[in-house]
Structure formats: structure tokens, C-alpha cells
Design brief:
The protein folds into 3 domains: 119 residues, Acyl-CoA dehydrogenase/oxidase, N-terminal domain (Butyryl-Coa Dehydrogenase, subunit A, domain 1, Orthogonal Bundle); 107 residues, Butyryl-CoA Dehydrogenase, subunit A, domain 2 (Beta Barrel); 128 residues, Up-down Bundle (Butyryl-CoA Dehydrogenase, subunit A, domain 3), CATH 1.20.140. The chain is of the alpha+beta class. The protein is globular. It contains 12 helices and 8 strands. Helix 1 packs parallel to helix 4, helix 5 crosses helix 7 and helix 10 packs antiparallel against helix 12. The strands form 2 sheets. The chain has a 4-stranded mixed sheet. Strands 2-3-7-6 form a 4-stranded antiparallel sheet, with no helix packed on it. A hairpin with a 2-residue loop joins strand 2 and strand 3.
């Protein structure tokens, strides 16, 4: 088995790094502390993704008929690693190219593909994800937001919570219940909804993670055409399951964690902390977690590149990714001491971003349950 990158892939990584060096502003590190939901990063992402699109890199792994270059999943993984390592200048658009676009390719009508995919591929549109609800967070199938069909429209009533990026989003991929008599996985549908549709209200949720990171979205008699339906009515759980398999291995958090760890090791050296064997052990353990997360993610990418269906390896990669992210965020707090308490400091910024890792796209506990049932074959009770 060959673990090294091909000459072409290695060259592409160097091209991406050179591009980042040219395009990122001098104050990028400060901007990136806001996270993808921050005003400055959201504004910058449109310019940045437009520049990526000009080079054909933003959606290069997509089929050429949808604005891609038929590149391998590995080329997209290289881009993802370099973007996450530097603070993800694509902002919320990483969701567009990782899983929203592929979900539309798989389940969308020709009209939906023609309308949405060129906009995503050009890097000029922001999306958000409307899944979690006040009483249906990690348990998505407990959702209660309804979209009742009236003629050639759906009328939506309900709310979503912990919604990231919606303060700047132009569209939301929305999970709703179209059969009010249904329960659990049945009767769920997915709608592609413009955020400027009358009846949609956004409220920010203040949090320690950062400003403009989480929101509530309320839907009051929101009318959308039935053409907004993605996939078949009442069969939306299959759409969501397909999309999340892309999302759970699409964010290279391990790359960001590894860069943070390198910085921590340098700080430890400067402060003479490497004389403490416990500090060395903690740094070594964190490095091992990063490498384990990277290798497991590569396994998922390899399966995808070969056209294999998703497996529980996706959940394994996700758990290791969030574990290494959280472990290194915690280690930064411990090594930096009192200065870590300063808002916006190196340690504080990394820990706040790591806090979201174990919750986004299904909590770590949910991923562990899926591993137990799908990978280990354990009974649910």
C-alpha cells in the first residue's frame, strides 16, 4: 500500500499554499478568530471563494457538467486540509461544496441543479442548515416543524435552533415534517428555501463560542413552492443520511488541531516546559490523536474515491476528529495558564472553536451509538 502523495497531488498542495499566501490579508489570524459566522469572515469568504472558483479549485471534485473538473476526492481533501489548517477562509461555503451541492446533485430536479449548482460552484452564495430544534437537537427525527401542502405550495410553521451562519445565508436546507401524522424517520422532507422569504425571523443566541455563531430561526406561515422539495416527499431522511455522510468527514479539523499543536509545542519549548515528562507525554498523545484522525479520514476518502457506499468508518473518523480537536483545545488552556482566560487569545480562540466540534453534525455520543450498532453490531437495548 502506498501512503505517499502522488507528484501531482503534492504539487497541487504547494499551489494551494502559495495561493493562500497571496490571498489572505495580513490580519487574517484576527479575522479567523471570529469563526465562519463572524461578519468579517463571512464578507471575506465570498471574495475568497470567488478567487478559488476562478482557478477551478472550489468544486474541482464535482463532475464537469455541474461546474467541477472531475478531480479526485483526494484533490478536494488536500484543499480541505490546507483551508482548515489556516482557519477555513471558505467560511460557511465549505458546507456548500462538501455536502449541500452533492445532495442537490443526487436528489435535485434538473431545475434545482441548474439554479443552485452554478451559484455554489462560482463561490458567490451562502447557505445554512436548518436541522436541530428546541426539543430535537441530536435526535433529529423528533423534529416538529411542519410543512403542510396547500395546492402547489408548502406552508411552514415551526422553529430551528443552534443554526450557524444563517445571519448571512441566502438559502437554508430545511428539514421538515410533511406528514403531520407521522413519527420518527417517516414523513420527513427536505426543502431548499430562500432566507428572504416572508415569515422567516432570525434571532441570535449569545454564547461563549463567539458572536453571531448560533441562532434561532422561526417560520410563521412561510409559503414556498412545491418545487423547493429536494427528493421525494416524506422520504427526506434518506436525503439527510446521504448528505451527512459527506459532512461528517468533510471538515479536516485534525489539520487545524495539528497546526495548533505545533504552536503549543513551540510555546512549551520557549517556556522550558519540555523538561516536564508529563507535558511531553500530553503533547505526544495529542499528536497521536491527530494522526489517527487523519488516517481514519483518509480511509473514508479512499472509499469515496472508489465509489463505495458509506460505512461506519465515517462515524469513526468523526469521533477521532472531534476528540483530537477537543484534547488540543484543552491542552492549550492548561499550558497557557492565566493568559488563556483572555478573550480572543490563542488558547481561548482554539478552545471556543473546539467546543463546537463534539456537537456539530450529530453529537459525539450519537456517533458512538452509530458505531456500536453499525460497526460492532451491538443491540440497541
Amino acid at each position: 500500500m502506498e501512503f505517499d502523495w502522488s507528484e501531482g497531488d503534492a504539487s497541487h498542495r504547494e499551489e494551494v499554499r502559495a495561493f493562500l499566501s497571496e490571498e489572505l490579508p495580513d490580519d487574517w489570524e484576527e479575522i479567523s478568530k471570529d469563526g465562519p459566522g463572524g461578519d468579517r469572515q463571512a464578507a471575506f469568504s465570498k471574495h475568497f471563494c470567488g478567487r478559488m472558483a476562478e482557478r477551478g479549485w472550489l468544486t474541482q471534485h464535482w463532475p464537469s457538467e455541474y461546474g467541477g473538473r472531475d478531480a479526485t476526492s483526494w484533490r478536494h481533501a488536500i484543499v480541505g486540509e490546507e483551508m482548515w489548517a489556516i482557519g477555513e477562509p471558505r467560511g460557511a461555503q465549505y458546507m456548500n461544496v462538501n455536502w449541500i451541492g452533492p445532495a442537490i446533485m443526487q436528489y435535485g430536479t434538473e431545475e434545482q441543479k441548474a439554479f443552485h449548482l452554478p451559484r455554489i460552484s462560482a463561490g458567490g452564495v451562502l447557505w445554512c442548515q436548518g436541522f436541530s430544534e428546541p426539543e430535537a437537537g441530536s435526535d433529529l427525527v423528533a423534529l416538529r416543524t411542519q410543512a403542510l401542502r396547500v395546492g402547489d405550495e408548502y406552508v411552514i410553521n415551526g422553529s430551528k435552533i443552534w443554526t450557524s451562519y444563517c445571519n448571512h445565508a441566502e438559502f437554508i436546507i430545511l428539514l421538515v415534517r410533511t406528514d403531520p401524522q407521522s413519527t420518527r424517520h417517516r414523513g420527513i422532507s427536505v426543502l431548499l428555501v430562500a432566507m428572504d422569504t416572508p415569515g422567516i425571523e432570525i434571532r441570535e443566541i449569545p454564547s461563549v463560542v463567539g458572536e453571531r455563531y448560533f441562532h434561532e430561526v422561526f417560520f410563521t406561515d412561510v409559503h414556498v413552492p412545491t418545487s423547493a422539495l429536494l427528493g421525494d416527499e416524506n422520504q427526506g431522511w434518506g436525503v439527510v443520511s446521504y448528505a451527512l455522510q459527506y459532512e461528517r468527514a468533510g471538515a479536516a479539523r485534525y489539520a487545524r488541531a495539528a497546526v495548533t499543536l505545533d504552536r503549543l509545542a513551540e510555546i512549551a519549548r520557549e517556556r522550558g516546559l519540555l523538561d516536564d515528562p508529563m507535558v511531553v507525554d500530553r503533547l505526544g498523545e495529542a499528536r497521536a490523536l491527530c494522526e489517527a484522525a487523519r488516517v481514519l479520514s483518509y480511509k473514508v476518502i479512499d472509499l469515496r474515491a472508489k465509489g463505495s457506499p458509506p460505512t461506519a468508518d465515517t462515524q469513526l473518523a468523526r469521533v477521532l476528529g472531534t476528540t483530537c480537536d477537543t484534547a488540543i483545545g484543552t491542552l492549550a488552556l492548561e499550558l497557557m495558564g492565566p493568559e488563556a482566560l483572555e478573550y480572543g487569545s490563542f488558547a481561548d480562540a482554539n478552545f471556543r472553536l473546539a467546543m463546537t466540534a463534539g456537537v456539530a453534525v450529530g453529537a459525539t455520543e450519537v456517533q458512538l451509538n452509530l458505531i456500536a450498532s453499525r460497526f460492532l453490531g451491538l443491540p440497541k437495548e
